[in-house]
Design a protein that fits this description.
Elements: E1 7-8, E2 19-20, H1 30-39, H2 60-75, H3 109-118, H4 122-143, H5 156-168, H6 172-185, H7 191-203, H8 207-220, H9 225-237, H10 241-253, H11 259-265, H12 276-284, H13 293-301, H14 305-318, H15 323-335, H16 339-347, H17 357-369, H18 373-383, H19 392-412, H20 420-445, H21 451-463, H22 467-478, H23 488-498, H24 515-520, H25 535-538, E3 562-564, H26 566-569, E4 596-599, E5 608-611, E6 627-632, E7 635-638, H27 640-643, E8 650-657, E9 666-672, E10 676-680, E11 686-688, E12 702-708, E13 717-722, H28 728-731, E14 734-735, E15 742-743, E16 756-760, E17 766-768, E18 783-789, E19 798-803, E20 809-813, E21 825-827, H29 829-832, E22 848-851, E23 860-863, E24 872-878, E25 881-884, E26 900-906, E27 915-920, E28 940-944, E29 950-952, E30 968-974, E31 983-988, E32 994-998, E33 1005-1012, E34 1024-1029, E35 1032-1037, E36 1040-1044, E37 1046-1047, E38 1052-1057, E39 1064-1069, E40 1075-1081, E41 1086-1090
Parallel strand pairs: 4-37, 33-41
Antiparallel strand pairs: 1-2, 3-32, 4-5, 5-6, 6-7, 8-9, 9-10, 10-11, 12-13, 13-16, 14-15, 16-17, 18-19, 18-36, 19-20, 20-21, 22-23, 23-24, 24-25, 26-27, 27-28, 28-29, 30-31, 31-32, 33-38, 34-35, 34-39, 39-40
Length: about 1100
């Protein structure tokens, strides 16, 4: 990336052209915050050697800035000449250590000090310094001063020379003290000296003392912007954003900003700085543990909550009044669901902590866990109006809670604390914050040179009412390469016209009016008796909590048998995306692998398989052909050519369903390039009906899809999930630094391709209704997985899309039932708690498993993600609202180091409890930096325990397939041999497809149901089934899409545990919302259930 000079901007008037100013003293330097400790000398190192004491840092920019910072120690001393022989006339090195003192007092100690320093005679210099200090002490005594040590009689420049002498004679603490006294005596007017003193203090590990020193300097010299910038950067490095914000705002208003500062000003999500240098501050100064806050934040961001809490406990034990650490400790305790500890923590807090959003997030999460919605809402509203308020997590929490109180007001007839206007403003702000962070991330990943994206960031900030930041970003945009597609000057001109000295940092018009909420809702009363309604809360563990992160490392031993029988059964296929996937140099378009699905195309009751291939160059038809395998009594026969389904596009995934309501399942094949629609003729062949659906762009990169009725007209519609736009991912490579080997580019380098919604016309043709249905968003995702069904328990189908590195999407009907065949969709994933992780941060999401994981009667999601994230379990807490319960259920640590793709919820032993099955594998096989990438990775299966938590299953006894690592991609279900045990298929990058047959010897009772719609679409997608037994209720959901590039067996499977072989009652709620009861349905069998005609 090319280097740019820092940009400094003139006062606001008519939109000015930015002026380039090369000034290392003004430049943004958060990397100084994170790395300067590593570059500072050890105690006693020679002063003049500091400028050459260089360590390796991560980027050239940081390295240059660090050298600038470190050299300040030497160069700002007043211009001393540190050459070895300066003024050393005898040329004798030994003279530098000669003791000049005798019985005669020095006539001119200051002159002697200067001369000794020039001659590098350090001991003589220190002796002269002592004479000067003794004289100052004598002056203090004679004046009658009561001050312990008064150095005001010594000139600042002389104090700096004394500091140098102290340093060179191994007295760094005194050196820092003398520098600080020099600054105080001249009222901090010398900005270079102030920064020099700060570096000296950092060298001693006095990080927080240095922050207070800089605060003192700014109180005396508020216009000293260079010092303020340093203080801002050091607060950011320390993870004290509340303190940093006031200085950052002042700098923006003073027009002293650059890209680095603006990015840091709005980085409310993950810590991006290395915490090791801050840890070294504690090593140098063990009496101050506060720098450990940086490491605690890094652990928190990795969802290692227990480790974060341990570090924070260490800090607050020594510094109980350090509010940033205390507030973050509260948030960490709440995130780990250690609520009894949280209650004790809250009782010990003092005034001042209320300025930190983390404090209110902790109380809000506590209240929410205890079913105290009003108190939770009040707490999150407080968080949204204090300190560092525009945190996505806060606004998404508000968005999920607020609608519940509109309903309550309607029922009770009381004056509402929450209004529809308030809900609308909060929802808009949550969504706009999400868009802003995604734009900023894309700007960074594309090299920080896009004028168009910088303008979009400014526009997003303007919509958030953050006009000063918006103007600053638009000023930055004017310095970036020209782009004729955008008019930055016009936007700036309009924005500048709206600004005046009285304009607040956040204009109130863009914020909700919480006055009614404050007046009617209570603050959390954390002394309240804790509810026992949460089964996880009741489970035992340290301090009453079981919220540790890790599943058992060795795994639970189970009596299961799962064997790969692909070869034995004739399912021999390898749908790889390239022939060289075992070598470095994999391109982004080759990383996703290929999927497939289960289809009973001949309706003989035996599950056939359709497998997708690639290997060519998109969008050409030069890949290996897809294959259809017919299941003949448990053995497979390849019939792709005969069935006319052997597409040669660059295959990614497939959706299975009946598109024309004739009872025969059809195929929607998703490609990088033209997609294919194959209609089942009912005679063992298919016809290519691709021309009956609207063609996408020639370079459309589709990954997954679904066939399901969306607009409630009884006809199956299509959803095409798309990834990146254009063919650039095919041609653009990303070489590794210092190497000719290319790596897989980040998808964020390329624009997102919007998904498409295709409406059935009823005659076998489809029309693109994406815009007509309102399925358009300002933040298109890079989609990989999809689920369609009745996801919220209300009649009608919703669409959930897992996006890679951008927030997920959830599309639902805007205003109840569609009228006259018109459907209006609204995207609300963030507002429903499934836009990302618990804090709303987007993840590298791919696969989706669904089911009633906690047996409470509603649908939950399990979403797979990239490494250094974690696979996320979203538990539905109320209709259409989900919570990230991953940490509380023990599912974080085992998935954190792996790259997970396909996943399904499978009851392997028919116990009635769903296991989570995950296939893992990295996107490439080379190392990044010092970290070796593990390309082949283990499969994972998680079993739910009686306490509600999940534990990893030991793979040692499952079967030979599980003894090896794989580069897994797609995963879907089937019952290949019709034995009532769920089997599954797994595709890979570097080996053929696996057909995993479930041969578990001891299994429970079971039931399979094949639903057929009549009034509803024949696929009956969106149906909910409940089976009443003597052992409880089993709930299942018929969904389409099925996650990552795949289609599951459409026959619903229910494990019934120890239930005796007896008939059961089945209730089906069809997509129409009408329920039917079917008594005496036999178990250990497959039954077809047909919707009654209406």
């Amino acid at each position: 990336m090319r280097k740019r000079s820092p940009q400094m901007f003139a006062p606001i008037g008519p939109p000015p052209a930015a002026t380039n100013v090369t000034s290392s003293e003004i430049t943004a330097t958060t990397c100084i915050t994170s790395q300067v400790a590593l570059c500072l000398p050890k105690t006693g190192r020679r002063w003049q050697s500091l400028a050459s004491d260089r360590r390796s840092v991560t980027t050239a920019r940081c390295f240059t800035l660090l050298l600038t910072a470190v050299s300040l120690l030497g160069s700002l001393l007043g211009g001393c000449d540190h050459s070895p022989n300066a003024d050393n006339t005898d040329g004798n090195p030994a003279s530098s250590h000669a003791d000049h003192r005798d019985d005669k007092p020095l006539a001119n100690p200051v002159g002697t000090l200067k001369l000794s320093l020039r001659r590098r005679q350090w001991d003589q210099a220190w002796a002269a310094s002592q004479v000067i200090l003794e004289q100052a002490e004598k002056n203090r005594s004679e004046s009658g001063s009561t001050t312990d040590r008064d150095l005001s009689s010594i000139e600042p420049e002389t104090l700096v020379l004394i500091a140098q002498a102290a340093h060179e004679t191994g007295r760094p603490e005194q050196a820092a003290e003398f520098l600080r006294s020099a600054c105080e005596s001249e009222s901090y007017q010398n900005a270079s000296r102030v920064r020099q003193t700060m570096i000296a203090m950092i060298g001693l590990g006095q990080y927080y003392d240095g922050l207070e020193f800089l605060e003192q300097a700014l109180r005396a010299q508020p216009e000293q912007h260079e010092t303020r910038r340093w203080l801002f950067d050091f607060y950011i490095g320390a993870d004290d954003r509340v303190s940093a914000m006031r200085h950052g705002q002042t700098l923006v208003l003073a027009r002293r900003f650059d890209i680095g500062m603006l990015k840091d000003l709005s980085n409310t999500e993950r810590r991006t700085l290395d915490a090791d240098p801050l840890d070294q501050m504690v090593t140098r100064n063990p009496d101050d543990k506060r720098p450990l806050l940086g490491a605690a934040k890094s652990k928190f961001d990795e969802s290692k909550f227990d480790e974060a809490i341990e570090l924070l406990r260490e800090i607050v034990a020594q510094h109980p009044e350090h509010h940033p650490s205390q507030a973050f400790l509260g948030q960490s305790l709440a995130a780990s669901r250690r609520f009894e500890e949280l209650e004790r923590w809250a009782a010990a807090q003092t005034d001042g902590i209320q300025a930190y959003p983390s404090y209110w997030i902790a109380l809000g999460d506590w209240a929410r866990a205890n079913d105290d919605g009003p108190a939770a809402l009040r707490a999150f509203a407080q968080a949204a109006t204090c300190g560092d308020p525009d945190v996505v997590q806060i606004w998404t929490r508000l968005a999920t809670l607020l609608p519940q109180f509109i309903d309550n007001a309607t029922v009770t007839g009381k004056e509402p604390a929450v209004t529809k206007e308030m809900v609308a403003v909060v929802n808009a702000r949550a969504q706009q914050l999400t868009r802003f962070h995604q734009l900023k991330d894309r700007f960074i990943r594309t090299g920080e040179i896009s004028r168009a994206i910088a303008l979009q960031i400014a526009e997003s900030l303007a919509k958030l009412g953050r006009l000063w930041e918006a103007e600053a970003w638009s000023a930055i945009a004017t310095t970036l390469p020209e782009d004729d597609s955008v008019d930055v000057d016009a936007f700036r001109s309009d924005l500048v016209g709206r600004l005046n000295p009285e304009t607040p940092w956040r204009v109130p018009e863009a914020l909700p009016d919480f006055d009614s909420l404050y007046a009617r809702l209570p603050l959390p009363s954390i002394e309240k008796v804790v509810s026992t309604s949460d089964p996880v809360r009741q489970s035992t563990g340290r301090d009453g909590s079981i919220a540790g992160n890790s599943a058992q490392q060795d795994g639970v031993i189970v009596d299961w048998k799962l064997e790969n029988e692909a070869d034995e059964r004739g399912l021999t296929f390898w749908g790889r995306t390239s022939d060289t996937l075992h070598e470095p140099g994999i391109m982004l378009y080759q990383t996703l692998g290929c999927g497939g699905g289960t289809i009973d195309f001949d309706l003989d009751g035996w599950s056939d398989q359709y497998l997708v291939a690639a290997g060519g160059t998109p969008p050409a038809q030069d890949s290996e052909p897809n294959a259809l395998f017919r299941n003949l009594g448990g053995q497979f026969q390849r019939v792709g050519e005969q069935s006319q389904t052997a597409d040669k596009g660059f295959g990614q995934g497939v959706a299975v369903g009946d598109i024309n309501e004739d009872g025969f399942p059809d195929l929607l094949v998703l490609n990088y390039g033209p997609n294919r629609l194959y209609v089942n003729n009912g005679d063992g062949t298919f016809r290519d009906a691709s021309d009956q659906m609207p063609a996408g762009a020639p370079d459309e990169w589709s990954s997954s899809g679904s066939i399901a009725d969306l607009d409630h007209d009884g006809l199956a519609d299509l959803v095409v999930v798309n990834y990146c736009a254009t063919l650039a991912p095919v041609t653009q490579s990303c070489p590794m630094t210092g190497s000719t080997v290319i790596r897989s580019c980040s998808p964020m380098l390329f624009p997102a391709m919007p998904d498409r919604f295709l409406k059935s016309q009823g005659d076998g043709t489809f029309v693109d209704s994406t815009e007509a249905w309102g399925a358009v968003t300002d933040s298109p995702g890079r989609g990989l997985g999809i689920i369609v069904g009745d996801l919220d328990g209300k009649p009608g189908n919703e669409v959930f899309v897992a996006n890679d590195m951008t927030n997920n999407h959830y599309w639902s009907r805007l205003d109840g039932e569609p009228s006259d065949g018109k459907l209006s969709l609204s995207e609300s994933a963030m507002l429903r708690g499934i836009g990302g992780d618990d804090r709303g941060i987007p993840q590298g999401s791919m696969g989706i498993a669904t089911g009633d994981f906690d047996r409470d009667g509603d649908l939950d999601f399990y979403v797979t993600n990239f490494d250094k994230e974690y696979n996320t379990l979203h538990s539905q807490s109320s209709s259409g609202i989900w919570q990230d319960r991953t940490g509380a259920l023990g599912l974080v640590d085992d998935t954190h180091p792996l790259v997970a793709f396909g996943t399904e919820a499978i009851d392997i032993d028919n116990s009635g409890e769903l296991e989570l099955v995950v296939t893992n594998g990295h996107v490439d096989l080379f190392s990044r930096g010092d970290e070796k990438a593990m390309y082949d990775q283990p499969m994972q299966i998680f079993q739910r325990s009686d306490d509600g938590r999940y534990r990893g299953v030991s793979l040692a006894t499952l079967g030979e397939y599980f003894q090896s690592f794989h580069v897994g991609r797609g995963l879907w279900t089937s019952d290949v041999n019709r034995d009532g045990h769920v089997d599954f298929v797994v595709t890979h990058q570097t080996e053929p497809t696996a057909l995993v047959i479930n041969r578990t010897p001891k299994v429970g009772n079971w039931l399979r149901l094949d639903l057929k719609g009549r009034t509803s679409s024949r696929n009956a997608i969106g149906s909910t089934v409940r089976i009443e037994t003597s052992q409880g209720t089993h709930t299942g959901f018929l969904v389409a899409g099925d996650g990552y590039q795949c289609s599951n067996d459409r026959v619903m499977h229910f494990g019934l545990g120890d239930l005796a072989d007896q008939a059961v009652d089945v209730s089906v709620t069809w997509p129409t919302g009408i329920s039917e009861r079917f008594p005496d349905v036999p178990t250990r069998d497959q039954t077809v259930i047909v919707e009654s005609a209406r």
